[in-house]
Design goal:
CATH architecture of the largest domain: 3-Layer(aba) Sandwich
Number of helices: 17
Structural class: alpha/beta
Radius of gyration: 21 Å
Shape: globular
CATH topology of the largest domain: Rossmann fold
CATH superfamily of the largest domain: Glycogen Phosphorylase B
Strand content: 15-25%
Length: about 375
């Protein structure tokens, strides 16, 4: 069968790649075309557009890139018609994907949404559109099933979080320090400044500045997949900080703490048991709009899932050098780290035992095969 996947950022590329891998196991005649990245391509998908050209963060940033976004929507529709897939699989990225889903439903395509838009946070009115446009919705967070089914009478499949498919058994490299030319005796603090150029521009200079105040540690930047060294060069040229590519999970395995830009990376960091500070900053206009419409007490997935403040969040004006220094000192305290790791243990128990990719692949295949009978 023909599968068309649409994702718009690094996390979507990761989850899409694992879904493709699972689909290939049960469909020997599978063909994949996708808006994604290197990981999906590695699994055999033909990439129409790389997510690095799609990831616009914040309200003002989206508005300023609107002509490009509209052009991409038009291109996507034409490409779907040419490929004529048996199913379109949307992975998060709602602003783009729900527009395609509306058109695709009217055009007679099957719409399956894997990793729901976070409509429980903002734009809850999107649920009505999702019920109209989607044939099936797969959710990955425990509270999402109740949100959709009890509050909105929308039957969904809870499949568990896909990160649990591979993080718990991720192999640890004994040669990590040697391979990346790191000091063997200095503990590591990982810097995860985000997967978008806009995030790196706002986060990395501050992360580098705070590193100068912790000489007993070595700070290592995890480069985002899909971004070249040139994206980081303006910020690290006067710094002694190391930067590594394609080894974020290995870096986390060897880190004592991490500074993490809000997003999927906060959950990944927690699943590796790394104490973290969650950081976020956007343009003043985008933040002002977000404050008006986002209905969340927290921005970190760790805090949202546990429904309490577990990891410290430094947002917008609170994200400054003084606060970073203070809270990083606190984070490195052994008592604080022990408490945090106990909270992480609870987080893992809530998320379940994994298998999301295989479950979702089987459900998609069964639904499409049934339609073909």
């Amino acid at each position: 069968m023909n599968y068309y996947l649409i994702s718009g950022e690094a996390s979507g590329d990761l989850h899409g790649a694992h879904l493709i891998k699972a689909l290939k196991k049960i469909d020997s005649n599978a063909h994949f075309r996708a808006w994604g990245g290197d990981l999906m391509e590695k699994e055999g998908a033909t990439i129409v557009k790389h997510y690095s050209e799609l990831a616009f963060m914040g309200f003002w940033e989206v508005i300023s890139h609107l002509p490009t976004i509209l052009k991409n929507i038009s291109r996507c529709k034409k490409d779907i018609l040419t490929f004529n897939p048996d199913v379109i699989i949307y992975i998060d990225y709602p602003g783009f994907n729900l527009r395609i889903a509306k058109w695709a439903k009217e055009a007679g395509f099957k719409n399956h949404y894997y990793i729901s838009p976070q409509v429980w946070a903002w734009k809850e009115n999107r649920v009505n559109k999702m019920k109209q446009y989607l044939d099936v919705l797969y959710v990955i967070l425990p509270f999402e099933k109740g949100f959709f089914e009890k509050k909105h009478n929308f039957d969904v499949h809870f499949v568990g979080h896909p990160l649990l498919d591979h993080i718990p058994n991720y192999p640890k490299k004994a040669s990590f320090h040697i391979e990346h030319k790191l000091e063997s005796k200095k503990p590591i603090i990982a810097l995860l400044p985000g997967s978008r150029l806009q995030e790196i521009k706002k986060m990395l200079p501050l992360f580098i500045e705070v590193a100068r105040h912790f000489s007993d540690y070595q700070f290592v930047i995890a480069a985002a997949p899909g971004l070249s060294i040139e994206s980081y060069a303006p910020y690290i040229k006067n710094s002694s900080l190391k930067i590594i590519h394609n080894a974020t999970y290995s870096l986390l395995q060897h880190s004592s703490a991490a500074l993490v830009t809000s997003g999927t990376a906060t959950l990944e960091t927690a699943l590796f048991d790394v104490p973290q500070l969650v950081c976020y900053r956007s343009s003043a206009f985008s933040y002002w709009i977000a404050k008006k419409i986002v209905k969340l007490n927290y921005i970190s997935l760790v805090n949202l899932i546990l429904d309490r403040l577990v990891v410290k969040e430094l947002i917008q004006d609170a994200l400054n050098l003084s606060n970073l220094r203070t809270h990083l000192h606190l984070l490195l305290n052994p008592t604080q780290q022990k408490k945090l790791k106990q909270d992480y243990k609870e987080l893992k128990s809530i998320l379940g035992n994994g298998g999301a990719s295989n479950k979702t692949a089987q459900l998609i295949f069964n639904a499409i095969a049934k339609d073909k009978i």
